[in-house]
Structures are given as C-alpha cells and as structure tokens.
C-alpha cells in the first residue's frame, strides 16, 4: 500500500491560501526530503499529511485509505519541530521514550515485554541507552531531539515524519541522527523529513521535494545546495511527470550525493 498519496492538495489558514495544487506520492521505503525557504509551506504540508491540518481541497490517502476513514495511526510517527517540545517536563529520557509506546498499548495495562523491548531498541538506535535515567532537561538540544525521535520510534511506525530535526543541532548530534535514520531506512521505514540543509543526511535521501510559495517547485533527485540555488530552478516546475521518471531524466546531469551508492 502506498503510504502517502496526496492529490491536488490545498490548505488555507484564516482564509489565506498556504498550499496550492500539491501532488505528492511517497512509496514504501522512500526517504523524501522536503526542502524550501522559510514560510514556503513545508511544515504545513507535513501537518496536512498527518491529518493535523485539514485540507481545503484535494484528496489524501494514507496506506491506501482515504483520510476520513483512516484510523491506523500507530503506523505513523511524527516528530514535530523541537521548539518548546520538552520545556518544563521533568521526565526521564526513558519516560519520554516510553510515552511513544502509548498508541500501541491498551489503556491501564502494564508495559509488556514487547513494549520494553521496543523502548530499549529505540534508545539504542538513537544512541541514548546510557542516558535513560537522566532527566530530559539535562540533555543538550541535540540529545533532546534524539529522545523525541526515539519516542516516535518506540511506536514502531512504518511511516515517520520529522520536522527540522537538525535545526540548531551540533555536528556530532547530526551524525548520530543520520545513523538513527540510516538504521530506520534499513528496516524499511518510509521517511519524510523537513529540513533547510541536508548536511550529513544527504547520503540517505532518495528524493527531494522543494516547496516554494505553497507549491511543489521541484520533485526529483536530490540536489546539492549549490544546485538548489541555481537560476534554472527559478521557474517552478509544473510537475507533470512521475517523480521516478523525473529522477531518471535528471540523473545524468545532477551530481547527486547519492550517485554511486547502493
Ligand atoms: N498557524 C498559522 N497561522 C497563520 N499562518 C500560518 C500558520 N502556520 C503557517 N502559517 C503561514 O503559512 C506559511 C507557510 O508556513 P510553514 O510553517 O508551513 O512554512 P515552512 O516552509 O515550514 O517554514 P519554516 O521553515 O519557517 O517552518 C507561512 O507564510 C506562515 O506564516
């Protein structure tokens, strides 16, 4: 089942059009980077794709089911932008990660062995096993970000959205994050990641979707930062072909960071 199929999606906030004519299809196991300038609509698109922001127009299907009928939310993980996410929460790292297991647990049941194993595994993947007893407030910003990612991973989602996970994160933490995402990708997860700059994540990304003024301006092979700013992208692409086709078309001309990798 195709994880995401958005057709002609539009979002308006307080009557102002924010997204228009957005077509986005993401296949199982794809790692898609959502790029674009501040205010271009990346976060709004992710909120629309997770059902948090209603569509004014268009159709969204998640895992083959129309959003109106979709109720399998445990298949989806969402790591929102970090600002304020953990402020004032006197929880331990383990508790934060364990909270991500809630959607899989029956209310008022004790944690099962499977729950505990998933929590341990998530901590391991993001490299925070040794910090499990610490309060989240004791962690650096980058480590807090990893704890939030582990929380999403504890639910064992098949499709995961991450909004700016590397913003304000130092290089060692970016590398740890890239490691965690590589592991997720190896396990077959579908990943949609919002970012300004790919940095160490570039090698993992299969496809770049560049937003501009609430529309998809480019959908295809990942570009280097230099190419994203090239004048030939000045005219928004009208996005007629299938992304795979487009990626193929571009492959010979684009020095993608992926070329030559498996
Ligand atoms: N809750 C809101 N109320 C009013 N306007 C909003 C709201 N959320 C987003 N917008 C507007 O929608 C547009 C797109 O915002 P969005 O956050 O989706 O962009 P973005 O590409 O994610 O940018 P950033 O990188 O700054 O997060 C912006 O003009 C923003 O001001």
From TrEMBL:
Record-linked InterPro entries: AAA+_ATPase, ABC_transporter-like_ATP-bd, ABC_transporter-like_CS, Metal_Ion_Import_ABC, P-loop_NTPase
GO molecular function: ATP binding; ATP hydrolysis activity
Keyword Transport: yes
Record has Transferase as a keyword: no
Superkingdom, taxonomy of origin: Bacteria
Region (Disordered): 228-262
CDD domains listed in its UniProt record: ABC_Metallic_Cations (cd03235)
Record domain ABC transporter: where: 4-238
Keywords in alphabetical order: ATP-binding, Nucleotide-binding, Transport
One Pfam family this sequence matches: ABC_tran
Protein family membership: Belongs to the ABC transporter superfamily.
PANTHER family xref list: METAL TRANSPORT SYSTEM ATP-BINDING PROTEIN TM_0124-RELATED (PTHR42734)
Protein name stated in the entry: Zinc transport system ATP-binding protein
């Amino acid at each position: 089942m195709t994880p995401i199929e958005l057709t002609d999606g539009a979002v308006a906030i307080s009557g102002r059009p924010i997204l228009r004519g957005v077509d986005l299809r993401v296949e199982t196991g794809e790692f898609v980077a959502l790029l674009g300038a501040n205010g271009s609509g990346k976060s709004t698109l992710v909120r629309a794709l997770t059902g948090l922001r209603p569509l004014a127009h268009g159709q969204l299907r998640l895992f083959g089911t129309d959003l109106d009928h979709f109720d399998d939310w445990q298949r989806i993980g969402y790591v929102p932008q970090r600002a304020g996410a953990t402020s004032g929460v006197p929880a331990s790292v383990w508790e934060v990660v364990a909270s991500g297991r809630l959607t899989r647990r029956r209310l008022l049941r004790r944690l099962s062995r499977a729950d505990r194993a998933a929590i341990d595994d998530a901590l391991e993947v993001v490299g925070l096993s040794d910090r499990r007893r610490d309060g989240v407030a004791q962690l650096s910003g980058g480590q807090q970000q990893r704890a939030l990612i582990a929380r999403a991973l504890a639910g064992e989602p098949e499709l995961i959205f991450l909004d700016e996970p590397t913003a304000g994160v130092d290089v060692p933490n970016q590398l740890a994050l890239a490691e965690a995402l590589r592991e997720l990708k190896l396990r077959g997860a579908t990943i949609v990641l919002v970012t300004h700059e790919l940095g160490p994540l570039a090698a993992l990304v299969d496809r770049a979707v560049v937003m501009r003024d609430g529309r998809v301006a480019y959908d295809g092979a990942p570009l280097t930062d230099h190419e994203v700013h090239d004048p030939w992208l000045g005219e928004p692409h009208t996005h007629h072909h299938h992304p795979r086709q487009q990626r193929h078309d571009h492959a010979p001309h684009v020095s993608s960071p992926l070329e030559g990798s498996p």
